[in-house]
Amino acid sequence: MQRRIIRSQSKKKRLLILVLLAIFLITLGILLFFPRLTKKALFISPVATNSSQDAKKIETLLLEADISFSSISFLDYYYIVMLSDGGQVILSLKKDIEKQITSLQPILKQLTIEGKKFNRIDFRFDKPLVVYE
Fold it and tell me: pTM of whole model > 0.85?
């Protein structure tokens, strides 16, 4: 009788170990192969891959909009455009760059009409933020 109880307990332990091992292997398989199936990375690279292409696009859009600038530099998740008159424009990479530059053109015209000097126009927010001198 005691042997049957020991064998029964031994079979239960083996079954439990097999079930846990199967769960572990299934979880490991999902974690390793799921990203390959979706072809999406699970992380965002801190290194910008298209920064030079974006800078060329910004340069082209600024030239098309007749906005004179002296330099374009990249920081974190935004571009800083130094205008020829000394003002600074911050363009967000999280928003459509073309729309930001299209919005910049009337802002600059309005500021010129009003004769106001500005230090910075920041497009990282919901509405463009203008910081005056």
Answer: no
Give the model confidence (pLDDT) of 39-86 as tens digits: 555 455 555 556 667 788 888 988 898 988 888 888 878 899 999 888
Expressed as residue numbers, the domain containing 106 is 51-132
* Residues 101, 127 within the same domain: yes
Domain containing residue 80: CATH number: 3.40.50.11690
Instruction: Please give the backbone phi and psi of residue 70, each rounded to the nearest 5 degrees, phi first.
Output: -105, -30
Please write down the HEC assignment for all residues of the chain.
CHHHHHHHHHHHHHHHHHHHHHHHHHHHHHHHHHHHHHCCCCCCCCCCCCHHHHHHHHHHHHHHCCCCEEEEEEECCEEEEEECCCCEEEEECCCCHHHHHHHHHHHHHHHHHHCCCEEEEECCCCCCEEEEC
Q: How many domains does the chain have?
A: 2
Residue 4 shares a structural domain with residue 64: no
- Do 110 and 66 lie in one domain? The reply is yes
